[in-house]
């Protein structure tokens, strides 16, 4: 007799920046590495005396189209979909109706009799009806954008926070929480989720071999002893591994989130439980965002001396609100195109009073995080939020930098028809030779099914473009900031916002046309899905080495300017990740090295080399 059991499931401003070239004398400090940085990097693979990094890196051109995100989320499997992420209805309507039934039994002599009829019962969880009918009772502190559409603390994807399965809308700022050690110097969604976050961090450690190797190699010397690092990045399992590595190397850290949607609540709880002052939760309001940054910085008796930033918001806040504190900073490490824009702007105006390291334009960030990370995560983000099929869809990708290249390659491989917009003739020519049609956005806006921005610019998609889009066109952003799509122009009385699921909104025009807006124009992959941990290991290791270098550099090595990561460090970060692939590097002979004019242990390329 067959038995069926049906269970009810609750489905869950940045101004343009003109860059100035460094003269050889200005860039000279980049020639050497601090003793601590060299020590942390360990002996070169081929033995021999460690060589100084390559000649000073030339100043990159103004960050242009294609600069993309730099931080990430860890895979989180098995999370319960959030009921409030879907349209609320009576749970009984979600069940399939079944009729009582039985089976016919045949005896050996051929007699047919009817088996007893068995009633098939539905299983309903005890708290199911309560979960569906419960309504948020407290909105808390919210910006205009948060009040128009339902809080994205609700989540649908498996990348969501465990805390998101709760309908508790109380702002973490209104809660009194303590970790097991009695400390309350943190503000997270729910400290009780720390155990789940610890498991995610442990999973991420398995895919971050270089960072773990650096932690093991350098923790005995404590090259960051005395460093007080204040950070503002995506708070994910990968970031947690970086923070704990910095702590193992001797640093004190205080952290906030650089994006209101990308924080994994359980990971933030795990860090708070471990003693890290973390101020972040998924679904912050704009007011919450700046409050969290201020709580990291404005602490009695604690003066930060290093900044690790992603987007420049933390640097901007300290520079504007605490100028005396800013002057005492030893170094800034910035990993996004948006933040680099701001640093070069300060440098050009003569207002940058501390040395800064531009990690965004390092080879290990541009060629790996921006390209390979986005090539995989763009499909993940779109699929989780829209469940769409890519084959045959017409897509326009705005920007053909490293992020744009990754997005285009992934979509083309899935059978999409891809158009590209560009302002840079070099990137435009690359797009053409890669087989993509170069267009202006106005030429295809009426026919495309998906619009993706990844330029690092502002107002790439304007209200005029949005008005002309076809019905059900999907609009999303793969750049760091939410300035690329003019979402503010959609906050008007004649347009209706309808929350479909977490991070997915229908914006409906009076004539019934609607577009599908993802993550309210913010970074798609970190807001709506996950990103590959291994790639983020490369970026995180680069950040850690940059912090070690700036903190331990002797007086005068780095002036009050923006520098690229020394080439030697880029190569070292790459070499730490090769054993994962069982890769074997070829070594130069003495004769070959002499012929090329290189040291056998690198660096192997001049700083002007374009990989």
Automatic annotation (TrEMBL):
UniProt EC number: 3.13.2.1
Pathway(s) the chain acts in: Amino-acid biosynthesis; L-homocysteine biosynthesis; L-homocysteine from S-adenosyl-L-homocysteine: step 1/1
Cofactor: NAD(+)
GO MF: adenosylhomocysteinase activity
Pfam families: AdoHcyase, AdoHcyase_NAD
GO annotation (BP), single: one-carbon metabolic process
Keyword NAD: yes
Gene3D superfamilies: Adenosylhomocysteinase-like (3.40.50.1480), NAD(P)-binding Rossmann-like Domain (3.40.50.720)
Compositional bias of kind Low complexity: 1-14, 68-78, 145-164
Keyword field: Hydrolase, NAD, One-carbon metabolism
Catalytic activity entry: S-adenosyl-L-homocysteine + H2O = L-homocysteine + adenosine
A single Gene Ontology CC term: cytosol
InterPro entries: Adenosylhomocyst_ase-like_sf, Adenosylhomocysteinase-like, Ado_hCys_hydrolase_NAD-bd, NAD(P)-bd_dom_sf, S-Ado-L-homoCys_hydrolase_CS
Stretches for region Disordered: 1-184
CDD domains in the cross-refs: SAHH
SUPFAM superfamilies: Formate/glycerate dehydrogenase catalytic domain-like (SSF52283), NAD(P)-binding Rossmann-fold domains (SSF51735)
Cofactor remark: Binds 1 NAD(+) per subunit.
Enzyme class, spelled out: hydrolase
Hydrolase is among the record's keywords: yes
UniProt biased composition (Basic residues): 135-144
Family the entry assigns: Belongs to the adenosylhomocysteinase family.
Protein name, per record: Adenosylhomocysteinase
Annotated organism of origin: Rousettus aegyptiacus
């Amino acid at each position: 007799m067959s038995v069926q059991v049906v269970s009810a499931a609750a489905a869950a401003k940045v101004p343009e920046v003109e860059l100035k070239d460094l003269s050889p004398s200005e860039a000279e400090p980049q020639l050497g590495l601090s003793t601590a940085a060299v020590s942390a990097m360990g002996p070169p693979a081929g033995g021999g005396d460690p060589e100084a990094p390559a000649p000073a890196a030339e100043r990159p051109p103004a960050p242009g189209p294609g600069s993309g995100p730099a931080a990430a989320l860890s895979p989180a499997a098995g999370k319960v979909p959030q009921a409030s992420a879907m349209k609320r209805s009576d749970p009984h309507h979600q069940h399939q109706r079944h009729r009582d039934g039985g089976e016919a039994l045949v005896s050996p002599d051929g007699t047919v009799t009817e088996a007893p009829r068995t009633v098939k019962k539905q299983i309903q969880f005890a708290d199911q009806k309560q979960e569906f009918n419960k309504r948020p009772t407290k909105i808390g502190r919210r910006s205009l954008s948060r009040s128009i559409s339902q809080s994205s603390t609700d989540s649908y994807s498996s990348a969501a926070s465990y805390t998101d399965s709760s309908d508790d809308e109380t702002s973490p700022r209104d809660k009194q929480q303590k970790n097991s050690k009695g400390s309350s110097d943190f503000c997270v969604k729910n400290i009780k989720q720390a155990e789940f976050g610890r498991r995610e961090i442990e999973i991420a450690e398995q895919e971050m071999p270089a960072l773990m190797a650096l932690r093991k190699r350098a923790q005995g010397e404590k090259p960051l002893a005395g460093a007080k690092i204040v950070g503002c990045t995506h708070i994910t399992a990968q970031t947690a591994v970086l923070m704990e590595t910095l702590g193992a190397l001797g640093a004190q850290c205080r952290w906030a989130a650089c994006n209101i949607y990308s924080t994994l609540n359980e990971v933030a709880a795990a860090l708070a439980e471990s003693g890290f002052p973390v101020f972040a939760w998924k679904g912050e309001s704009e007011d919450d965002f700046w409050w969290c940054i201020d709580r990291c910085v404005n602490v009695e008796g604690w003066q930060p001396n290093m900044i690790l930033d992603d987007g420049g918001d933390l640097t901007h806040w300290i520079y504007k609100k605490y100028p005396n504190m800013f002057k005492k900073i030893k170094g800034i490490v910035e990993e996004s195109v948006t933040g680099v824009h701001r640093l070069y702007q300060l440098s050009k105006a003569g207002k940058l009073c501390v040395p800064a390291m531009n990690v965004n334009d390092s080879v290990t960030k541009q060629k790996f995080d921006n390209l390979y990370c986005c090539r995989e995560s763009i499909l993940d983000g779109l699929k989780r939020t829209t469940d769409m099929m890519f084959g045959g869809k017409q897509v326009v990708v705005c920007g053909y930098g490293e992020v744009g290249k990754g997005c285009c390659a992934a979509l083309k491989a899935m059978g999409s028809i891809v158009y590209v917009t560009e302002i840079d003739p070099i990137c435009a020519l690359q797009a053409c030779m890669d087989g993509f049609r170069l267009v202006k956005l106005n030429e295809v806006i009426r026919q495309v099914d998906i619009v993706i921005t990844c330029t690092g610019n502002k107002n790439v998609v304007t209200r005029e473009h949005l008005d002309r889009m076809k019905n059900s066109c999907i609009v999303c952003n793969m750049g760091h900031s939410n300035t690329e799509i003019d979402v503010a122009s959609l906050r008007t009385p004649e347009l209706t916002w309808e929350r479909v699921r977490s991070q997915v909104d229908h914006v409906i025009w009076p004539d019934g046309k609607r577009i599908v807006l993802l993550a309210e124009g913010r970074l798609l992959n970190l807001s709506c899905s996950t990103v590959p941990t291994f790639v983020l290991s490369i970026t995180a290791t680069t950040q850690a080495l940059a912090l070690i270098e700036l903190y331990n550099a002797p007086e005068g090595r780095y002036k009050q300017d923006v520098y690229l990561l020394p080439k030697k460090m880029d190569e070292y970060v790459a070499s730490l990740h090769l054993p994962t692939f069982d890769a074997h590097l070829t070594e130069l002979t003495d004769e070959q090295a002499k012929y090329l004019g290189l040291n056998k242990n690198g660096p192997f390329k001049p700083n002007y080399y374009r990989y």
